[in-house]
Amino acid sequence: MDVRKVAKLAHLEITDEEVALYTPQMTNIVAYVEQLNELDTENIEPMLGGLTAEGAATDTRRADVPHESLGQKNALKEAPSGVGGHFQVPKVL
Amino acid sequence: MKEGWEAIIGMEIHAQLATETKIFCGCATSFGDEPNANTCPVCLGLPGALPVLNEKVVEYGAKAALALGLNINEQSIFSRKNYFYPDLPKGYQISQYDKPFSSDGELVIMTAERDEHGRAKDFKPMTIRIERMHLEEDAGKNVHEGLPETDKYSYVDLNRAGTPLGEIVTKADFRSSWQAYDYVNHVRRALQWVGASDADMEKGNLRCEANVSVRKVGEEKFRNKVELKNLNSVRFMQKAIEYEIERQIAAHEAGEGVSQETRLWDEKNNKTRVMRSKEDAHDYRYFPEPDLQPLVVSKEFIETMKAQMPELPDAMRDRFMAEYNLSFDDASQIIGDKDIAAFYETAAQASGNPRTSANLMLSEFVRELNNSGKRANESLLTAESFAEIVKTLDEGKINNNQAKEIIVESFNTGKSPADVIREKGFEQVSDAGAIEKIVDEIIKNNENQVNAYRGGNEKLFGFFVGQVMKASQGKANPKVVNEILKSKL
Questions:
Q1: Selecting from 3.40.640.10, 1.10.10.10, 1.10.10.410, 3.40.50.300, what CATH number does the domain B432-488 have?
Q2: Which secondary structure element, helix H or strand E, spans residue B10, and what is its range?
Q3: What is the Cα–Cα distance from A50 to B159, expressed in whole angstroms?
Q4: Are B244 and B228 in contact (CB under 8 A)?
Q5: For B439-462, how does the pLDDT look when each residue is reduced to its tens digit (9 = 90+)?
Q6: Which residues contact B477 (CB under 8 A, 6 or more apart)?
Q7: Of residues B148, B235, B179, B137, the one with CA closest to residue B1
Q8: Which residues of B touch A72 (CB under 8 A)?
Q9: Is B154–A69 a contact, with Cβ atoms under 8 angstroms apart?
Q10: Do B16 and B196 form a contact (C-beta atoms < 8 A)?
Q11: I want to staple B105 with a disulfide (CB 3.0 to 4.6 A). Which of B70, B188, B254, B444 is the partner?
Q12: pLDDT (mean) for B397-422
């Protein structure tokens, strides 16, 4: 388990102590889930997205009709910093 | 390309599907609104908001897939593609990964290399394998200019976030920049044709990327490839690929090698430059999107979509060549636009003269369309009226230049061709008696020329025709004039 890599992908800064702490914990989690591999699934149809065939066949689409959007002012209301109608963020690129 | 080398090119096209609203929420997809106006909790990625799939995305996706020769999969699933960037508010993009909406396509395009003047040499069919077209949401837009303190800050407009896209990925089947060029144009036209996308590169609703590598002819292994971005027009894309092929060959020959990286087309300097190296390549950690059902489409749905497919442009081109005897070039131009093709077909049939209809359309009509920025179906000159002009020309009542003038006038004013002919006094005189009178007069007044002509100077015939036309103010039917002149002289 490469905890440093996972942390980097998640934009987390972790210390060496934390790496030492998390590595066995995360290894345990993965090992726990790996128990599923012990099951014999030879004759079982794979499920699509974890749903039964019936569930997967349920139509849950919406019509292509516009709803009322929040609008610029409301959209920016909760933002730490909104300038000129935009979300302001630390410089990228 | 330098002797002994070959280029290996694969294409990725993102096409915005022509829906009114976004893929997972009801916010409008309209272009040019106030920044962040068309947003809601779903496309802002606010906690607890849940995506719901737009049914039109499935329909346009199906049409796009069929137009590109792809197989629609009855079952596909959405996946999360995880990465951090300010234009992606959720921290992941909802896309498709291991079970895409459509896959395994084969598309026959017409392609040709170009000479140094950009003229196509010889168009030949080529089969392109399309790996997949999956459905996904677009990200928002980062703004780096025109706002305060852009040295410290970037700005984000999320109007575009959640716009539905079809991402079309080919196998690395292209061997030249012009093949890629012809492919993108083919896709663009096909998508517009079936109404799946406006496919307008200037508005950004068609974006393409090219993966380019080179190898020695005969080599089995692939060398490092470069991903080209920021290709804002099909022409820039072609130039960027061409540049990249030469750059890579030179780098290999100099022993420097080519690094696996993303490069941008710099249109000011006509070259590509590094955007990011593959070292910080993303690890997207795709996993199935738990907030959305699998996308299941029935066999009946697929059959219905197939039944709704119009005749596709290439089939239409071949038919025009066979039925109307058009050249490949003329037929290709006519099917370059669906509305022009429909206009042409109506005019060709109503006039009974497909050849002349094509000539007049490709010269006058298309120019007027371009000048006015109108589409063929918005033309004030209807296809039926256009056919009338062709017929009047065929009957010899007007000449070719007059026909062109009528097209321009009717196009711009909406007047019927008959009215324009009357107003401009174009009605030709075919009455033999009236023309004979003029001819007699001219023979009488030009004794020297008559004698010279009769003495063997046949070039003077044109002089007499000119005189008659002048005397009739251009209204005499040239055919009748010729006949009468010949008999009288």
A1: 1.10.10.410
A2: strand B5-16
A3: 32
A4: yes
A5: 888 888 888 888 888 888 888 888
A6: B396, B397, B428, B429, B430, B435
A7: B179
A8: 34-37
A9: no
A10: no
A11: B70
A12: 88
Q: Which of A50, A63, A84 sits opposite B55 (nearest CB)?
A: A63
Cα separation, B117 vs B279, whole angstroms: 40
* Residues B128-184 pLDDT 10s: 999 999 999 999 999 999 999 999 999 999 999 999 999 999 999 999 999 999 999
Q: How many other C-beta atoms are found inside a 10 Å radius of the C-beta of residue A31?
A: 10
Token pair, residue A21, equals: 């702490």
Global pTM value: 0.85
Out of B25, B151, B293, name the one closest to residue A60 (CB).
B293
- Which among A30, A91, A93 is the top mutation candidate for probing chain B, defined by the most B β-carbons within 10 Å of its own β-carbon? A91
Helices first, then strands: H and E counts in chain A:
4, 2
Question: Residues B347, B380: contact at Cβ < 8 Å?
Answer: no
CA B297 to CA B317: how far, in whole Å?
Answer: 32
Paired strand residues for B80: B94, B287
Report which of B76, B32, B87, B71 is spatially closest to residue B53, judged by C-alpha positions: B76
Name which of B63, B145, B153, B301 to mutate to probe chain A: the one with the most chain A Cβ atoms within 10 A of its Cβ.
B153
Domain boundaries, chain B: 5-300, 311-424, 432-488
- Which A residues, 19 through 48, put their C-beta within 8 Å of a C-beta on chain B? 48
A7 touches chain B (CB under 8 A): no
Residue that the structure tokens 């099917």 belong to: B335
Q: Can you tell me which residue has the tokens 């399309």? A: B130
Q: Tell me how far apart the alpha carbons of residues B76 and B296 are, in angstroms, rounded to a whole number.
A: 7
Picking from B268, B4, B289, B253, the residue whose alpha carbon sits closest to that of residue B136 is B289
Element (H, E) at B180: helix B177-193
Q: How far is B59 from chain A (nearest CA, A)?
A: 11
Neighbours of A32 (CB within 10 A): 9
| Closest alpha carbon to B237 in B198, B208, B201 | B208
Distance, CA of A50 to CA of B305 (rounded, Å)? 28
